[in-house]
Amino acid sequence: MKQKIPETANIIPSDFVIIGGTGHLSVRKILPALFWRFLDKQIDKNSQIILCDRNIKSPSEFFDNLKQHCSEAIKKDKNNKIIWEQFLSIIKIIELDVVSGEGHLELLEILKANFDEKRPIIFYLAIASSLFGNSCKFIRDSGLNVPQSRLVIEKPIGKNKETAIEINNEISSIFKESQIYRIDHYLGKETVQNLMALRFANTFFENQWNNNNIDHVQITVSETIGVKERIAYYNEYGAIRDMLQNHLLQLICLIAMEPPSFYEADQMRDEKLRVLKALKPIAENEIQTGQYRSFSDELEEISNTETYVALKVMINNWRWAGVPFYIRTGKKLSTKASEIIITFKKKPHDIFSKFTQDTQDNPNRLIIRVQPEEGLKLKLTSKAPGPGGMRFFPSELNLSFGDTFSDRLPDAYERLLMDVVRGNQTLFMRSDEVLAAWDYIDPIVGIAKKQEPQLYRTGTMGPEDKILSLDGHKWIDPKDELK
Q1: What is the pLDDT of residue 432?
Q2: What are φ and ψ of residue 9, in 5° steps?
């Protein structure tokens, strides 16, 4: 099935001002996403992209580097080389220092040329959170915080609740909450969107979605890469603050939340907030940290920072009481995968026990693959065809998005950036969500500091499990489920 962009998905001409515009995040994620949207004509030549940075190198050198990260899009069609040149024509690069304000006149001049009260101005802060406050003051002092201005900020928002409050206070003193878009790209992934559709657009799963029917949930976000150039950042934040505080908690919220009355921003965020506030505090035997064996060799100084974390999460409400959520994330693991596995309870009585015991060993499972090979799988037990009595084998219903949709699946940033232009905050975090997440994470960081991270070999799935085995469970390897 080839997807066509509906007319209702078109956006009005907009100004994208990326502060930190020549940096890592902009080059690898933001600009390629905007180019894909330009190819699909959601963004046209009447929009403009303004890249602001303190130290601008050669523009031609920058565009050559950017082109490498857009090569998939350029190579997709022979006409895309022409469209690439058209895309570059709407990009302007200026030197700007948000602390001193130097360069603001050039930015004002560019924005003034197309100023319209209905034309959104998107300020994307692709910089360290320590500069968010200065950037917002710069926008205010330059007279650019107008009603159609929108502010996009990346995680992590602070490194604990105290610093998150400081950052939120700085931002909210200048921008209204309705203007602020706290981005978590996991919420823009197609499979994560389908998780909501699976639950709330169908009856058969939602009726089973509770502690009467679900035994446990596993969430794995594993990466094969190491920390590389992010050594300084990872020394300060580690896996808990980098991945658990945002991506993993957001996935738990989407799995566990109650159905909102409407698919609307504040209703969705209200329900996610209720989940965060219902999380049971972690005990010391419910968290396990690890560090890949070559990690300390990569550091400028020996660090005790975790590159792997696993924990058992319990939710204190009627729907989920007694159902453990096992979550893990790590660097330098054997498989790159983001996967949610819902394991249903075994049937109360096996009428086929005299034929075989195999059916008891294969519980029904729903596998939600966020990446790669996005899709949904439902594990079932079926009868093997042919005579010879009742013989069973594990089977599956498989919805592979790659097989179903012949065209590429848009990247999460593409969807989220277009939502910012439309003023749709449904997939963005509210300030109270961020603070509630830190309420849960700060004590976990305290417990982790008392633990010595277990060393694990690169290319494995982390240290030997010390959490699931206590409950008689074991981790399900994503490699097995991705086949």
Answers
A1: 94
A2: -85, -10
379: tokens are 């594990």
Q: Could you tell me whether strands 287-292 and 454-456 are parallel, antiparallel, or unpaired per DSSP bridges?
A: parallel
Q: Tens of pLDDT along 295-311? A: 555 544 547 788 999 99
Q: What are phi and psi of 131, to 5 degrees?
A: -100, 0
Task: Verify cis geometry, omega within 30 degrees of 0, for the bond prior to 372.
Answer: yes
Residue 322, phi then psi, degrees to nearest 5: 90, -5
Q: Are strands 121-125 and 15-19 parallel, antiparallel or unpaired?
A: parallel
Active site residues per annotation? 247
Q: Residues 51-61: pLDDT tens digits?
A: 999 887 788 88
Residue keyed to tokens 């502690």: 211
Residues shown for the chain: 483
Give the C-alpha distances (Å, rounded to integers) separating 206 from 149, 255, 257, 324: 39, 11, 11, 18
8 A C-beta contact, residue 332 and residue 292 = yes
Those residues whose C-beta lies under 8 Å from the C-beta of residue 312, and which sit 6 or more positions away, are 282, 286, 287, 324, 325, 326, 467, 468, 471
94/50 Cα distance (integer angstroms): 7
Identify whether the C-beta of residue 136 lies closer than 8 Å to the C-beta of residue 166. Answer: no
* Spatial separation of the C-alpha atoms in residues 243 and 237, rounded to whole Å: 9
Question: Which pair of tokens denotes residue 100?
Answer: 């001193």
* Tokens 């696993």 sit on residue: 310
Lowest mean pLDDT among 120-129, 309-318, 384-393: 384-393
Residue pair 200/206 in contact (Cβ under 8 Å)? The answer is yes
- Percent of residues, the chain, with pLDDT higher than 90: 50
User: Per the structure block, which two tokens stand in for 10?
Assistant: 């078109």
Looking at residue 169, its pLDDT comes to 94
Q: What is the pTM of this model?
A: 0.89
Give residues with Cβ within 8 angstroms of 431, minimum separation 6. Answer: 168, 172, 177, 180, 182
Residue 435's SS3 state is: helix
